[in-house]
Amino acid sequence: MRQWPHLTVFALLLVVSLLSLPSALLAQEDVVLSGQVLSADDGLPLPGATVTIPVLGLSATTDDDGRYSLTIPAAQAVGQRTEVTVTFPGLQPGKAVVTLGPGAVSQDFALGLSFHETVTVGSRAAGAAAQDAVPVDLFTPEQIEQSGASETNQIIQALAPSFNFPRPTITDGTDSVRPATLRALGPDQMLVLINGKRRHTSALVHLNGSIGKGSTGVDLNAIPASAISRIEILRDGAAAQYGSDAIAGVINIVLKSGASDSEINLKGGATTHSDGELADVSLEKGFAIGRGSLFATLEYRDRAATNRAGPDPRPQGSVNPVEQPNHHWGDAETTDLMGFFNAEAPLNAADSVWFYAFGGGARREGSHGGFYRRGLDDRNHPAIYPDGFLPLIEPVVTDLSLSTGVRGELAKWFFDFSTQWADNEFEFNVANSLNASLGPTIPPNQTEFYAGTLGADQWVTNLDFSRAFDIGLAGPLNVALGAEYRREGYRIEAGEPASYIDGGLPNQFGGRAAPGAQVFPGFRPDNELDESRGNVGLYVDLEGDITKMLRVGLAGRFEDYDDFGSTSDYKLTLRFQPLDSLVLRGAASTGFRAPSLAQSYFNSVATNFLAVGGVLMPFEVGTFPVDSPVARALGATTLKPEESDHLSAGVVWTPIENLELSADLYRIDIEDRVVLSGNFTGPQVQPLLAPFNVTGARFFTNAIDTKTEGYDLSASYSFRPGGHGTLRLAAAYNSSENEIVGEVQTPPQLAGLEQVLFDAVERRRIECGQPEDNLRLTSDWSGDRLFGTLRLHRYGAYCQVDRQVVPQEFEAEWLTDLEVGWRFDLLQVALGAQNLFDTFPDRNLPANSNLGIFTYPSHSPFGFNGRFVYARVKVRI
To answer: 3-class SS at 65?
Structure first.
């Protein structure tokens, strides 16, 4: 069993942090900072603005008159000069340096229109009212910090019921880059932005039995949580606004910014099943650079593996007893090192033009197993592994990105010119393995292999303009228009020869040995490729108040791709407010998703042996690109973009102050959805495959149409019981139901093979493989010193899709998270537990559990690790 990672270093950092506290505190009166936040344009108060003292971790929200009040303990306040910031959606943030006390201190703010602040998703118009036309979830720094999770995917899942993040295992590279979904659609049907700019996808295409099979998606875990200021989730189709992939919605990650004190965050924990140890350390600092700023963060995360596999009851054929369990069924072991920055600076004396840049890098090393090779397995050589072996995939994933741009005002137009570059590489390494066809002798055989690399890169350049016009309506008409050029690249690099060659030597029983590294045969030279495509996009977006009650938005977008032509999409939004406390909203839009380059070009071939006339002959079985002769012989055609129609309607009601209720219905119809076919083998297809010396093949295809219907409910209420501290109560619910409509679109060559092209397991993966509904109930308490979070999760029922033999349904489960913490002068300490009551999903039926080895479904929405307990410490320096 792996020992606690870096325990000594973690303990030393904790001790140093505690010793950094002042030795004595002066007994003085608390300081009250108060004031008013107004609009610079019309002098009206801004209710709902957030006023924050970053170095003290204190914040308050303005009331209906735009007024706020912050109470600062005397020991933290008296005589201290500190920066106070204020933010309001769509307006330029305000900052002031204030001397705290003694006594009462006043500081007012006036916020003007923003042209260097990040765009809030859902609308390109300034002002919070526009956002009510579509549902947008906003998660604050405090919610992110107190979620109890370290990985960005897990943080979002803890907060947003529309987001699903299962924990697949024995799925090759997917164990290290795990897919996530929004509204139960695919990982590649969710657009991810950082600071409003398109995020690149991972190079990995998910080929095995996980949710999102056949897709590529954004690796959100490559974004360090310590760099995130807030998370915005647009739960509405938005391809007409932001381009390809935004069928299910948009996630916008807003990075921390501005000057601030140094901060060290330490977190350590483990499951109560003696595994899954976690050490997470981050250092963040904001620097003032002239009139600009640079915020940087560095984070290191080491997560040990978990294992819930059952014992292997089969005869092992080993020299010595085999330690059980011999398989690995659980989270992979991963080590991440990540760094991000976010910078901005004015370029003129009037502060009307700003330069900005952000980006970062991440490196992840993982280790996870395949199927155990027993000592008597014909893929083993007992001279090398007398007791058998568990082959390991040990990928190295690197992720780099850089975005730069200029925002400002030009002839009364706000403009934003930017360019972004990004690259993601997934390097496959195989350890504790062998190529059986090279024989049992060492040397020349080996047990570690470099099996090749997948790569994906992206370059995007945007030019955006926006301006408000007074044309006699009840309010200004906001006009936004822009252009985008995007170049995407995809590549496959071959592994070392020993990872894929056929050495021609027999297996331990004298038969033909399988070639290639066990668990993941390397990419061959004929798999290598370097493909790219470009596309140009143009958009226009109009939004304004037709009357005092009715706001209308209309967006249109045209895109032209090198590889599949052009597409045009639109979006219409309506926001009707008959009462101050009531908003009715609706939207209708079309959308699209361009097939990824990986779906068009990925190829991987393995050699299998088939008896012909009593003699074993080598044949090729693999995944072939749609334009290959093999795939064309089976009827494959050039992939088309997925086309979608999205309808939504909702209501937002604020019956009393600080209480907001919302409900939204939606329907998403998708045509020509891209899926990965099954393996075509057997006598019916052999005449088609025989000319290519191939016995089996699969390919990507636009085989199905789907319909997704669902609804979202939410409620939030905050108040100050007794005038001390703030209690926030929130409930959020999502229900999504997927259905495959119409017939499977089968090529004539494969008539009668619909169940191979798209079989019952794949149908279940889409229709019921994800929870039918999710619920989050949250209670947050924040006092002067004490804070805490209690969160209840309900994950709805779902069905078996993982190595299914017998169809199986898994019941809904409730999980509880709890965190309690204390604030001191420069220190914050918290203790918590995820899955407090150690809840597990239903067990796999015996027929689905591989002799009892695979105990729980690997696509469980909350994993199957059980209780995780942790402690975290924040220290300001």
So the answer is: coil
